[in-house]
Specification:
Strand order of the largest sheet: 4-10-9-8-7-5-6
Radius of gyration: 22 Å
Largest sheet: 7 strands, mixed
Oligomer: single chain
CATH architecture of the largest domain: 3-Layer(aba) Sandwich
Low-confidence stretches: 1-12
Distance between the termini: 15 Å
Shape: globular
Order of helices and strands: HEEEHHEHEHEHHEHEEEHHHEEHEEEH
C-alpha cells in the first residue's frame, strides 16, 4: 500500500480525502486545476480519493470525465433518481420558463406538492415547511422543538452528522474536535449491534439504557430535554439500519422526559432503504418531526421539515419565520418530478431487490476474509465493516482506504464511513440496477483478489 493510502486522521481531515501533499504526483492538467481551486476556494474544501476525479458530465448512475472515461457511481445519494434524469430536467426547464418565485404568492404547485408529499407520511404528520438544504431543515426542526418544549437539550448518536449551520454543527459530533458540541448536547453510542452483542449485552436494553443515561445527565445539569434526533440509517456512525425497533423505545423515553423525536431522513428517506418511503417506519414509530434534504429535488436545492400540526400552532402565530427561496417554484417542480420517477420506475422495490443482490454478493465475496467483520445494510445503503481481525474488532481504516482507491482506479466510486473511516459505504443513486450491481461485485472481486495477493487482506 502506498503511503498515501493511510487515511489522514488529523482534526478536520476528511475520510477518503485527497492529501494536498500529494499534489506533485498528479498529472499536469489535474495539478493545475487543483492549484487554481486551492487559490480560489481556500483550504476548507476537500476532494475525494487519492487521485481526484475530474467530472465533466453524468447520466443515470454514470459519471464521465472530460476525456469521456466512464465511472460507475456507487456513492451519490443526492441525485437519487439518477444524474440528469430527463423527466426531472424537463420539469425544471418548463417551470423556469414560466416563473420562479417564493411561497408568499399563491401557487397551486406548492400546495399540490405539499399534499402529495404528506400523503407518504403517517396521518399524525400533517404540515410541511420548505427550506433549501437539509441543514436548514434540521435547524428549523430544532428551533421548533425548543420553542414547543421549552428545553434546549439534544441527544444524538456518537458520530452523528446533521448539518453545517452553527446550531446544527453543534449537534454533529462527526465534524470533529475543532467543531465543539454544545454544552446542552449528550451523545449515546451508535447502534452497533456487532460490538454491543460481542460484549454480551442485550442490544435493545443497551440502547434504551444509553438514552436514559443521556436524559438523566442533562437533567442533573439542569438542562431540559428538547429533542432526540437520529438518522435512521446511522450513516456517519458506520451504517447501522438494523436491528429495527429500538428507536420506538428511544422516542418513548425522550417524550416521557418532555422532548420530541426528530427523524433525519436526508440520507435514508424517499425509499432508499427499500422498505417504504421513510426509514423511521421500519422501527414502528411515528416521529414528531421529520426532516429531508436535497435528494427530494435530485440535487436542486430543496429540503423540508414535516411536523405534527399541533407543534406549529403557537410557533406559527408568534414567530416570524421565512425562508426566501425555500419551496421556490422551480425546486417544487423538481421535487414533484422526483416523486413521479420514484413511483413510475418503482425505485423503492428496485432498492429492495438490488440491495439484496448486493448484500448477498458482498457477503459471498468476503465470507472467508478475517478482516471483514460484517456486511450490513438495507436497500441501497450498505456498509462493509473492515477490522484487523474478527476477534478484536479493531477498526482497519487502512484497508478501507485501499479498497476505495483501488476501486476508483477501476472507475467504480464508493466511499467510507464511521468514526474511524473503516466501513465501506455503498450508497448509489436509486436508479442502480441489477446489471450495475453485477459490475460492482465483479470489480470488487478483482480488488479483493489483488489485496489478498499482497497480504493486505487475509
Amino acid at each position: 500500500m502506498s503511503a498515501s493510502s493511510t487515511p489522514d486522521m488529523r482534526p478536520g481531515a476528511m475520510a477518503n480525502g485527497f492529501e494536498p501533499s500529494m499534489l506533485q504526483s498528479l498529472p499536469a492538467a489535474e495539478r493545475e486545476l487543483v492549484e487554481r481551486r486551492q487559490r480560489a476556494l481556500g483550504p476548507a474544501y476537500r476532494l475525494f480519493y487519492e487521485l481526484p476525479v475530474v467530472v465533466d458530465h453524468a447520466k443515470g448512475v454514470h459519471i464521465y470525465d472530460p476525456e469521456g472515461n466512464e465511472y460507475l457511481d456507487v456513492y451519490n445519494n443526492v441525485p437519487c433518481v439518477g444524474h440528469a434524469h430527463p423527466h426531472v430536467n424537463e420539469a425544471i426547464a418548463r417551470q423556469l420558463e414560466r416563473v420562479n418565485t417564493n411561497t408568499r404568492y399563491l401557487q397551486d404547485g406548492v400546495v399540490d406538492y405539499a399534499e402529495r408529499l404528506l400523503s407518504t407520511f403517517p396521518d399524525e404528520l400533517g404540515n410541511v415547511m420548505f427550506t433549501c438544504t437539509g441543514s436548514e431543515a434540521n435547524d428549523l426542526a430544532l428551533r421548533v422543538a425548543r420553542w414547543v418544549t421549552g428545553g434546549t437539550g439534544v441527544i444524538v448518536t456518537a458520530n452523528a452528522y446533521h448539518g453545517v449551520t452553527t446550531a446544527i454543527a453543534a449537534i454533529s459530533p462527526s465534524l470533529g474536535a475543532n467543531v465543539p458540541l454544545g454544552s446542552y448536547v449528550r451523545t449515546i453510542p451508535a447502534p452497533d449491534a456487532l460490538r454491543i452483542q460481542a460484549q454480551g449485552f442485550d442490544f435493545d436494553a443497551y440502547m434504551a439504557d444509553a438514552v436514559r443515561a443521556a436524559i438523566a445527565d442533562l437533567q442533573r445539569h439542569g438542562v431540559k430535554v428538547a429533542a432526540f434526533i437520529a438518522d435512521g440509517a446511522f450513516a456517519s456512525d458506520g451504517i447501522h439500519p438494523n436491528p429495527v425497533g429500538w428507536l420506538h423505545e428511544a422516542a418513548r423515553l425522550v417524550r416521557e422526559a418532555g422532548g420530541l423525536y426528530i427523524a433525519d431522513e436526508v440520507q435514508p428517506g424517499f425509499g432508499r432503504l427499500g422498505d417504504g418511503w421513510w426509514g423511521f417506519a421500519r422501527h414502528g414509530v411515528v416521529p414528531d418531526i421529520v426532516t429531508m434534504g436535497k435528494p427530494m429535488g435530485n440535487g436542486i436545492p430543496i429540503a423540508a421539515a414535516v411536523f405534527r400540526p399541533d407543534l406549529l400552532v403557537d410557533f406559527g402565530y408568534r414567530v416570524r419565520y421565512f425562508n426566501t427561496f425555500g419551496g421556490n417554484s422551480v425546486s417544487i417542480a423538481a421535487a414533484g418530478a422526483v416523486l413521479d420517477v420514484i413511483e413510475s420506475e418503482q425505485l423503492i422495490a428496485n432498492a429492495a431487490s438490488v440491495g439484496r443482490q448486493l448484500l448477498e454478493g458482498i457477503r459471498s465475496l468476503t465470507a472467508s476474509d478475517e478482516q471483514v467483520a460484517e456486511v450490513r445494510g438495507s436497500g441501497l445503503f450498505i456498509g462493509v465493516e473492515l477490522v484487523t481481525d474478527r476477534e478484536s474488532l479493531n477498526e482497519n481504516p487502512q484497508l478501507s482506504a485501499a479498497i476505495v482507491n483501488r476501486l476508483r482506479e477501476r472507475r467504480v466510486l464508493i466511499s467510507s464511513s464511521g468514526p474511524k473511516a473503516n466501513v465501506l459505504k455503498v450508497r448509489p443513486p436509486m436508479a442502480f440496477r441489477s446489471a450495475d450491481a453485477d459490475r460492482l461485485l465483479s470489480e470488487l472481486d478483482i480488488v479483493l483478489g489483488q489485496l489478498r495477493s499482497t497480504g493486505e487482506l487475509h
